[in-house]
Amino acid sequence: MRSRSSITLHFRAEAYDHPSGYVDAGTVMSWLDKVGYAAAATWAGSNVQATYIGNMKFGHPVPVDTQITAQARLIYTENTQVHVQGRLTLPEVLDDDGEPTVATWVVMVYEAVDAKGHPKQVKPWEPRTEAGHKRREVAKARSIEHARGEDALGQVSFPDPAETTAEVVLLCFIAHAAQVTPGFRLQGGTLMSWLDEAAFVCASRWAGKPAVAVFAGGVQFYHGVYVGDVVEIEARIVHTTERSMYLVVRAWSGKPEQRDLRPVAQSIAIMVVAEEGKAEPVPSWHPATEAEKQLQHRTIELVSMRNKNVYEWSTVEVP
């Protein structure tokens, strides 16, 4: 039987979980990870682990109490990696052409692992249409560019929270059994949801009003998080414009008895304060030290690079 190269899942968010009337970015990211994981694992024939979740621009808010469709399809395979393109659509919210509104789309990279958690080769994916071949070529080129640019933040130092005027928030979570994959590793979507929560708290405190995400910039996963692990997440303001806040969000994990935790993930978020669909002005922040200036510069540079690496879901049918 031929392995499937595309998957569709359906979700629905209840109003009591989202009192604002709209679904938070963390939940959206977890849905996309679920469908991406399903597509990658189905193709690999084994468990897979998220290693990278690309840029997400939230082009349309996701309302509660409505049907949500999450789709994922393969676009590229290489050695142990499966590259998947995903999107979230709203079948009950139609665009000007009468088509389901696309809320966001993203490219996700997973690594196939065997029963012992070791990386394993995956069979090559061969497109069957011209559009599929084009998507594969774009994905291959973007993969090379991604590898070149992802160490941008790793080369700068982060000022101690006590030594910066920027808003810095630290949240703590514990990984539970209900949140893990078959390999007992925390679901990538759960960790992304926690990263979003930290960004939300940090941006909301800085602005003095509830903030929402308009951009989630490439979650890079370094190590796995397992059942019982403590996860500490730091979110900090690194740049502001008149109406937006740029944040770098980092996560560490380890056993509860350990003091030295290892880094497990890092991402960038852009948050705004939205009233009646329009972004409001936010308090400005300016770097005061050379380290803060370097961090600001590298973050803006990385957002720009990732924006160039975003490509929309084609209207061509899934191969």
UniProtKB/TrEMBL annotation:
Residues 1-116, 162-277 form the HotDog ACOT-type domain. GO terms for molecular function: long-chain fatty acyl-CoA hydrolase activity. This is Acyl-CoA hydrolase. GO terms for cellular component: cytosol. Belongs to the acyl coenzyme A hydrolase family. GO terms for biological process: acyl-CoA metabolic process. PROSITE patterns: HOTDOG_ACOT (PS51770). It comes from the Bacteria. Gene3D superfamilies: Hotdog Thioesterase (3.10.129.10). It holds the Pfam family 4HBT. CDD domains: BFIT_BACH.
